[in-house]
Design brief:
With about 220 residues, this protein is an all-alpha fold. The protein folds into two domains: about 70 residues, no CATH class; about 130 residues, Hypothetical protein, domain 2 (Endonuclease III, domain 1, Orthogonal Bundle), CATH 1.10.340. It is built from 14 helices and no strands. Helix 6 packs across helix 7. One of its GO terms (biological process) is DNA repair. Keywords: Endonuclease, Hydrolase, Nuclease. This is Endonuclease. InterPro entries: DNA_glycosylase.
Length: about 220
């Protein structure tokens, strides 16, 4: 059986990138990329392929809907069309409504700047999760996705290894306790590690591939 460190190395080598990176979001602690990551989390939290959610987030951005003001002011059909181009067809109409309502809430409650939401939580992660879930379309799973992605720039959330990431750890034969996982990951970027674990959770082939590659490297 390969060492856990080698399994993690193979996982990070092949799948070490965040979903925000896949969507073309250059995450920084500034309003636009934080909002774009919130939109991505809303899209990823539905029962739909992650590739369609990522593609739809790109389409919304390319349509100019990069911040809550532009999203709130956009036409509902414009949002539906962008989601459709990304392959987000099953939930496109409902999601288009939620995106508009959510953008208006972010504007009204936090002046379009999610850093104010962070300030309101005052470092309390449970309170932050609750505030996130006030956004239409963003339930517990969506809040987890957002926090997994932004832990690189909101260090109070790090290491954020939610149930889905821990499910991936189990598939890889790794411990599922967050402190143990974080120690095994060493200096790996926590958001990258969490995203890679999620990929192992949603696709069993990822876990098998990484374990097989680690075994082969043990035999070298």
């Amino acid at each position: 059986m390969p060492s856990q460190q080698k399994v993690i190395k193979e996982l990070l080598t092949s799948y070490g990138h965040t979903f925000a990176e896949d969507a073309g979001i250059r995450l920084k602690n500034t309003p636009q990329p934080l909002y774009q990551t919130l939109v991505l989390a809303c899209l990823l939290s539905a029962r739909i392929r992650s590739s369609a959610a990522v593609a739809s987030a790109r389409e919304l951005r390319e349509a100019g809907l990069r911040d809550p003001r532009r999203m709130a002011d956009s036409d509902w059909q414009e949002r539906v069309d962008a989601l459709g181009r990304g392959g987000y067809r099953r939930y496109d109409e409902r999601t288009a409504t939620q995106l508009g309502d959510g953008a208006q809430l972010v504007l009204d409650r936090w002046g379009g700047d999610l850093r104010r939401m962070r300030d309101e939580a005052g470092g309390d992660l449970d309170k932050l999760r609750g505030l996130l879930q006030e956004v239409p379309g963003l339930g517990p799973a969506g809040a987890d996705i957002f926090l997994r992605e932004v832990q690189a720039v909101w260090p109070e959330a790090s290491p954020y290894l939610d149930a889905k990431a821990r499910e991936g750890a189990k598939r890889l034969g790794l411990p599922d306790a967050p402190p143990k996982l974080a120690r095994l990951a060493g200096d790996a970027e926590p958001a990258v590690f969490a995203a890679a674990l999620v990929r192992a959770a949603v696709d069993k082939n990822v876990a098998e591939e990484c374990k097989r590659a680690a075994e082969e490297s043990d035999g070298d």
